[in-house]
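Q: I'm a student working through a structural biology exercise. My instructor gave each of us a protein and asked us to get a predicted structure, then write a short paragraph describing it. Mine is Isochorismatase family protein. I'm not confident about reading structure output yet, so if you can add a plain explanation after the tokens, that would really help. Here is the sequence I was given:
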Amino acid sequence: MKALLVIDVQNGIVDLGDFNKELSLTESVIKDFKRSGSPVIFMRHFDDREESPLHESSAGSELHGSLKDYADYVLAKRTPNSFYNTELSATLERLGAAHLFVAGFETEFCCLFTAIAAFDRGYKVTFIKDATGTGNTGETYGMQGLDIRNFVGKVLDWSNVIEVLDYEQYDEKYNSETFPG
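A: Happy to help. First, here is the predicted structure for Isochorismatase family protein. I'll explain a few features afterward.
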């Protein structure tokens, strides 16, 4: 069975920029999973720092209104790895999931860490790179011109163990008509 992990689509991150394309593509993937009856699991990141927009008591920690109603499950996490000290493994085991698809936010942190951790746990992993986004830029890392999403996608693709697709490639290969639950 396949499952979709929608990581950290929270107000405190989405409000950092114009993520309409990423949200739209993520919504398209979610709708495909819904049509096939496959589970959609949202992860919410909570930060312990009170000044953080992802502090548990802040409006920034809430799931973004454009997608929150699609969640079959909402799980909390406190690190970039969605598996670490969370209910994700138990939930996936109960569901019988073997193939995880990754979309959401911060491409180079939570999405990347989760994709690698999923592979390490024996899951087949598909990373839909243009359905991920980040509030960071090349300037954040002192690497002018760095396209974070393409860099992460290339690194994961080079691993030869995590499948990396653009939405269009995902749609062609895995849409609900050709890839049922």
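A: Here are two points you could use in your paragraph. Helices lie at 11-14, 20-35, 88-95, 107-120, 148-158, 167-174. The chain has one domain: 2-174. It's a good idea to check both against the output above yourself.
Q: Great, thank you!
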